[in-house]
Amino acid sequence: MPAPDLSLLEQAAREAGEIALRYWRQSPEAWDKGGGAGPVSEADLAVNAHLESLLRGARPDYGWLSEESVDEPARQDARHCFIVDPIDGTRAFLEGQEGFSHSLAIATDGRITAAVVHLPARGLTYLAAEEGPATLNGAPLVPADHDLDGARVLTAKVGLDPMHWRGAAPPLRREFRPSLAWRLCLVAEGRFNAALSVRGVWEWDIAAGSLIAQRAGCRATELSGQPLRFNAARPMAEGMVVAPPRLHGQMIAGLGPAGSP
Fold this sequence. Notes:
Elements: H1 3-23, E1 30-32, E2 39-41, H2 42-58, E3 63-66, E4 80-88, H3 90-94, E5 101-108, E6 111-119, E7 124-129, E8 135-136, E9 139-140, E10 152-154, E11 173-175, H4 180-188, E12 194-197, E13 201-202, H5 203-216, E14 219-221, E15 236-237, E16 240-243, H6 245-254
Parallel strand pairs: 3-4, 10-11, 10-12
Antiparallel strand pairs: 1-2, 4-5, 5-6, 6-7, 7-8, 8-9, 12-16, 13-15, 14-16
Helix pairs in contact: 1-2, 4-5
């Protein structure tokens, strides 16, 4: 992975943060996308426009996949593709909370090769490339392994529904954060032991965080245990488990066949 790609993503993420903070706690215009897709705001669109201009201008041969852009099937013909969530955690952003992030990644031949998750309101910048350590503000990240019983897991309430487990759900200590990208970084950082989604997850939510977690020493897979692949025709993974290897294995063994929505 050429170092300039990661540097470009970091620059873009920091500029995205500057734009977002101009709208944060300023009552930006917002509306619902419909179809259960949740809210979007003028801040999301402003950040998206800036990112697309900067990143595609710098790498015109790269594809583009963003939550806030019309999908272009031509991206699949590109060897490299930007995968972007302009503001991950829009509800938190609109409520004036600090836990929103900018999630930026590059996929090369279906795998993530550079990643940045930036939380401007908290001054946190997580970085990773395909080779080398994952870092937070320059310091290497170290995850915290744990047995399944009592593990601190970031997941929605549905993640502990017994229907998703073989038998009863294990006694996990469930917590939640609004940005899915940040959840993966918190696992990489060792603040929590695992992140779980029993529902489908969009690529833009997990692309950057999955590489950061992996380079920290975690495993990041679909619920089935299959590797995550990116820049797919339908850019959604069939659920997600992110944890250090021992706990990851225990979670995969305990989850039901498909972890249906």
